[in-house]
Amino acid sequence: MLQELSIKNFAIIDQLDVAFKNGMTVLTGETGAGKSIIIDAVGLLAGGRGSASFVRTGTDKAIIQGSFVFPAGGTTYRVLDDLGIDHDDGSVILQREIHANGRNTCRVNGMLVNTNTLKRIGETAVDIHGQNEHQELMQPEKHLGMLDEFAGAQVAKLREKYTKKYAAYTQLKATLESRRANEKEWAQHLDMLKFQVNEIDTAQLKAGEERELVAERDRLDNFQKINDALQQTQAILTGEETSAGANDQIGSAMQAMQAIADFDPAFKQIAASLETAYYALSDAVGDVSSQLDLLEWDEGRLDEIERRLDVINQLKRKYGDSEEQVLSYYDKIAAELKQMQATDETADDLEERVAGQESELLQLAEKLSKARQEAAKHLEKAIHGELADLYMDKTVFAVHFTRAKAQSLMSTGLDHVEFYLRTNPGEAMRPLAKIASGGELSRIMLALKTIFSESQGITSIIFDEVDTGVSGRVAQAIAEKISGIAQASQVLCITHLPQVAAMADHHYFIAKQVVADRTETSLTRLDESSRVDELARMSAGTQVTKLALEHAHELLKLADEVKSAHG
């Protein structure tokens, strides 16, 4: 569940901190006060798309933080374990910063993550159900996904297996089509890859080799200059051209100063400096001697280096600006060559393999379709039960299947699925998207959400004005349905209906005001008396009457009776 939410510099929100509890929480207030902005903020914590337009005018960034806890062994903790994110204390803090320049920063328990990872975690924690989901009901192409979601593990396993086989099938089919259309181009490309792979492979190129060769060539090119410098240095240090070398002279000076070092600290410091110089020069004498011993002129080696550098330069001209780029290109074409050689068979061979895979795929698609049809029966039964509670007991809901041709296997199988509806007895079943009203869509979507919430394991469900287009007893039924969902999951609900607000366990009022010429949103938790006033305002509008207050009291009394009966 979502325990705490902190929002800063987000849209018209300057600073907002709120603690949430179990059960059903409603957010009410005037239109435009910022209710949906709070839901947008939670949506961003769940990995929703961020935009610089969310950042409050005049600020550098918007900051949103949410603290969550989940049942032990829940899906969220398993995802965190997979990602290596610590959650030993049981709490999970999701944080998102959206900068004015559009940059996003996401953290989970202090660990930086990308938005895809945040979404992977967030979709196990929060389920936001808004009016846009009604639009999904109006899009038949989304209905198959809804059915599969309801069907659960059995269909999910079959669909995953089918998807993998379908990907392999389409790849092989594309290869066959390419071979048929481009036999000549295929052969030419294969020959070119073989030549390039062989050329780079034969060169035995190594990263950093050119740099080492250039350094060695420079030493050989400057052999005489290096030899002269080493000889001269050795002569100066060892005294080959004078009676005493520089090192011996430094040694004599060191001994002279050491003899008087005890008379003055300054003398001792000079003696120490000379001693350091003496031993450093002694080491230098040894190093110069070693370099002279190693120094060797090899004209054949110089020619060998020049030839090798020429090979490297030729490879760079063809395949990249550096050895690393050449080697990266080699890895790429070697993999492509391996794939082409693996499928280096005749078009007839490929056609036989495609036919074999298509046959296997068709069998698996039939199993998937059968499992879906079985799940559809259970969904229809469950939907009818929920709709009866929402005063749509005469409505008939059906999952309508049409089959693709065997030669037209789709990435999702053989099935086209669309939800059909009959709202009144005696009428024909018709596509839901063509006949359902806004209120009916609200109730159907709520029915689906009620069914799905029992199996998804999501601990926080948000309803954003899902009661649009309903009133009266239907509004009361929706309120009771949402309250029922809150028995198993934390529910946050934005509503304009007093019936829904009365069913809440916790009630927050959202308002906006102008402070120092800036619009700000505030959030206040209502006590019992304030709830009565707010419910009366929701019922009566701007002028709260005595009758509206009495109605508000009645709504709260009814809500307590309903919750007691459910409890």
Please describe the topology of this protein.
Blueprint lengths: L1 E9 L2 E7 L4 E6 L5 H11 L15 E9 L5 H9 L7 E9 L4 E5 L2 E3 L1 H11 E5 H7 L5 H9 L1 H29 L1 H21 L5 H13 L1 H16 L7 H15 L4 H30 L4 H21 L3 H20 L4 H43 L6 E8 L11 E8 L7 E2 H4 L2 H19 L3 E5 L7 H14 L4 E5 L3 H5 L3 E10 L2 E8 L2 H13 L5 H21 L1
Parallel strand pairs: 3-13, 3-14, 8-12, 12-13
Antiparallel strand pairs: 1-2, 1-4, 4-5, 5-6, 6-7, 9-10, 10-11, 14-15
Helix pairs in contact: 2-3, 4-16, 5-14, 6-14, 7-13, 8-12, 9-11, 10-11, 12-13, 14-16, 16-17, 19-20
Protein name: DNA repair protein RecN
Family: Belongs to the RecN family.
Organism: Levilactobacillus tujiorum
Please give a structural write-up.
The chain is α/β, with parallel strands linked by helices and 567 residues long. Helix content is 58%, strand content 17%. Strand 5 and strand 6 form a beta hairpin. The mean pLDDT is 85.
**Strands side by side in the biggest sheet:** 2-1-4-5-6-7
Number of strands: 15
Q: Please outline the major beta sheet.
A: 6 strands, antiparallel
Structural class: alpha/beta
Brief description of this entry?
This protein has 567 residues and is an alpha/beta fold. The chain is built from 20 helices and 15 strands. A hairpin with a 4-residue loop joins strand 5 and strand 6.
List keywords for this structure.
single chain; 567 residues; alpha/beta; six-stranded antiparallel beta sheet; six-stranded mixed beta sheet; 20 helices; flat
